[in-house]
Design a protein that fits this description.
Elements (H helix, E strand, L loop, with lengths): L2 H29 L4 H25 L3 H27 L3 H8 L1 H14 L5 H19 L7 H23 L3 E4 L5 E4 L4 H23 L3 H5 L3 H27 L13 H12 L6 H17 L1 H10 L1
Antiparallel strand pairs: 1-2
Helix pairs in contact: 1-10, 1-11, 2-8, 2-10, 3-7, 3-8, 4-7, 4-11, 5-6, 5-7, 6-12, 8-10
Length: 311
């Protein structure tokens, strides 16, 4: 992959981390006022609709195989987002939740190895124990147990790792070996079409779960202008724009561990939460989040070393 293209992918993923951090704020405001799964459904369906206005020509050219690949990515992402938004609703600390969710980035190469038999950088095996130590410190904040919100964030992180891998592979042309040994090319799916379908599936998954588990009548009847604003901002800035940029950036690189640039997301989120919600961290929380952040840097050590050399 040309160096210029690699740098472009990293810069775009850096933008994604900022959009993601902003999205945490919008989402937190919304789930404080309405059922979380209903919020996710409205957010993702609106984002998908907006993108479909631009993506229609690409969507019309998708064949059944490509459509199924999009749906498969969306189903995994929908399950992950369901756990994430429930974690956000139960969380006592947004910044901490961002660091827990970021563990999915460390697990991306591991899932790539287990599911797709990709090689795993040695730095990943060094990063995992550091991440576990960080989790231990976070759990000690409340005694020798994890809160419901923390467990939900950790579950979401594991599923996010699978989603990142599936999304990267769907956005790239791959050589697939069939059971008879024949090699066939699996064509890439255009980023705009892939993002549109994936977001629609997430909206459908969270909507179905909300219909089953959550009350709608009171929420819809008392929908305020402020709540509508948070939903719209989450759908446009935090979802449509963010995931379109992310999918396009992932289409520039087939390397699953390239997404580790998103190491910065929990940092931005913790800083914004401190300003937005006035959150503060105890010493144990700071140390735990610091270790998780260190694990992400270790996992991305090659890129960090290059930056140090350039400096």
């Amino acid at each position: 992959m040309p160096i210029r293209q690699a740098h472009k992918a990293d810069l775009l993923l850096l933008l994604v981390t900022l959009l993601a951090a902003i999205s945490w704020m919008f989402s937190r405001e919304a789930v404080l006022a309405m059922p979380p799964l209903l919020f996710m459904s409205l957010r993702f369906l609106l984002a998908s609709f907006l993108l479909s206005l631009l993506a229609f020509p690409q969507l019309a050219r998708l064949d059944s195989t490509q459509l199924w690949r999009c749906i498969r990515v969306g189903l995994v992402f929908g399950i992950a987002m369901s756990f994430w938004v429930l974690g956000l609703a139960f969380a006592s600390h947004v910044g901490e939740g961002a660091f827990l969710t970021s563990l999915g980035v460390v697990l991306v190469p591991v899932i790539a190895r287990v599911v797709f038999r990709e090689s795993v950088p040695g730095s990943t095996w060094l990063a995992l124990p550091v991440a576990v130590a960080g989790l231990a410190l976070l759990s000690l904040e409340q005694g020798l147990h994890l809160e419901a919100g923390q467990l939900l964030f950790m579950t979401a992180a594991a599923i996010f790792a699978l989603y990142f891998n599936l999304n990267t592979r769907a956005a790239n042309t791959l050589a697939i070996r069939r059971s008879n040994g024949e090699m066939v090319q699996q064509p890439r799916i255009p980023a705009l079409a892939l993002t549109t379908v994936v977001l629609a599936v997430v909206g459908a998954v969270t909507g179905a779960l909300s219909l089953w588990f959550e009350p709608w009548q009171t929420t819809l009847a008392n929908m305020s202008g402020t709540l509508v604003m948070w939903i719209v901002l989450s759908a446009t800035v935090g979802t449509a724009m963010r995931f379109l940029v992310q999918t396009y950036a992932q289409s520039l690189s087939l390397q699953s561990h390239g997404v580790v640039i998103m190491v910065l997301e929990p940092m931005w989120t913790a800083l914004m939460a401190a300003v937005w919600f006035g959150e503060k961290m105890s010493l144990l929380q700071v140390c735990g989040c610091g270790l998780i952040f260190l694990s992400l840097l270790v996992n991305r050590w090659r890129a960090v070393r290059k930056i140090i050399r350039l400096g």
